Amino acid sequence: MNGVIVWLHGDSLSPTDPALLANPGAPAIFIFDEPFLAAAQLSFKRLFFLYECALEAIAGRNGSIRRGVVVDEVRAFAAEHQASTVHVTDSVAPRFQQYVAELQTTGLQVVIHHPPTFVSWRGEPPRRFSAFWRRVAEEALRPGSTGPELPSEEVE
Amino acid sequence: MQLRTDLQTREEQAAYLAEALAGLFEGAAQPSPIRGGRRAALRRLRAFNVQHYARTRNDVVQRGVSLLSPYIRHGVLTLAEVRDSILSRFGHTPDTEKFVNELAWRAFWQLVYAHLGDRIHQDIEPAKYRTRVPRRLLPPEVMSATTGLVCIDESLRELYTTGYMHNHARMWVAAYLQHWLGVDWREGADLFYRHLLDGDPASNSLSWQWVGSTFSHKPYIFNRQNVERFSAGTYCARCPLAHNGSCPFDDSYENLAWRLFGVSLAELEGRR
Ligand SMILES: Cc1cc2nc3c(=O)[nH]c(=O)nc-3n(C[C@H](O)[C@H](O)[C@H](O)COP(=O)(O)OP(=O)(O)OC[C@H]3O[C@@H](n4cnc5c(N)ncnc54)[C@H](O)[C@@H]3O)c2cc1C
What we know:
The complex is a heterodimer.
Chain A: E1 3-8, H1 18-22, E2 28-33, H2 34-40, E3 42-43, H3 44-58, E4 63-68, H4 70-80, E5 83-89, H5 94-105, E6 109-113, H6 129-140
Parallel strand pairs in A: 1-2, 1-5, 2-4, 5-6
Helix pairs in contact in A: 4-5
Chain B: E1 2-3, H1 10-20, E2 25-26, H2 38-47, H3 53-56, H4 69-73, H5 79-90, H6 94-116, H7 140-143, H8 150-162, H9 167-180, H10 185-195, H11 201-212, H12 224-230, H13 234-237, H14 240-243, H15 253-261, H16 265-268
Helix pairs in contact in B: 5-6, 6-11, 8-9, 9-11, 10-11
């Protein structure tokens, strides 16, 4: 039981997800959150967009897209792959924090990855955007790289 | 339940997903013309020309905007990647700086969400002014995009068919629903959230609160002149209500402040 799986969620649904990049060979799972979606009744367009994102995120690996209770499905997937560790990318959503806590109580180790920062602000923000912008503008306007490689025109 | 990942065409995938996710969505099983995935995101990023962004971003017809929000919202592109790509290709100009400033709005709302959690779905501050219009539930003509107001109906129709709405149109619709119709912002936010491909708890709820003044200094309002100016006159030209004198937006800001909130514009804007 020392394998690793990657759990993808709707806040980081990309082949460049940091948890995926850190674990090139690991199986990956995305779950349509059944109780949440049954209550939210989003439009099909949204769910299809997520499906397209998920398909591309797991392409070329041992990947799985499921419908169910997120924590149960992650646990089952981990068991299928003899994994005791789940890698996932951080999210500020309270539901995400809750699922991580639930996974931990079931004995799985959860390793949280972080996307590249836009600005390094931590903690309580000011009440108004203008005050925030004044304090972060300089950093926000400083590029950290040249950005992702873009496809050439012919690819289309 | 395990979903298939081997279907090739979009049509096959959509038909399959509609069955696999039965019970979990509302309305027709029609995908958006906007494609998901990293490849589509990078194509969009490459296609976006930020020149003239500052001047054209508010125009709902010219649309000098990036259309990147669905990808950014789902982490298919990060704010840092988008910023880096734009600054390295277009340099530091008033347009690129305005664009990065808009990216920062998302970063700001995310930080507020990280701090307040689900409390973002309740009034964060008391409303500075509340509309005098009586409270009502979301009317059916909003759900069917048949209010008769072309600026509102076109915006809603785009939302329902593509899952996108221009930022300025979002502001109009959110202000119309709250201040003119008396709909609770949570109901409007819920409607947007169900349809927007970029639907995000933080950006959505906090923007609605910004329009309503429970997370800003004053309620946001607009008038017909604003619609004319930022739609190159096209909406009003086609709008029957604009020609028979019953456009609810056809007034000065001063009069609208009195009509909607019972105060002067100076009071509404916190200048008195
Ligand atoms: C009532 C209302 C509800 C909204 N709900 C959402 C939502 O659910 N999700 C969402 O991403 N945005 C929301 N917005 C903000 C904004 O309308 C969209 O981000 C923008 O229209 C997306 O189009 P674009 O990518 O072409 O924008 P561009 O002008 O090209 O901006 C580039 C990126 O910056 C970010 N951005 C720009 N403006 C804002 C803003 N005001 N707030 C937050 N981020 C911004 C987005 O990530 C956007 O993709 C809402 C605005 C209003 C008024």
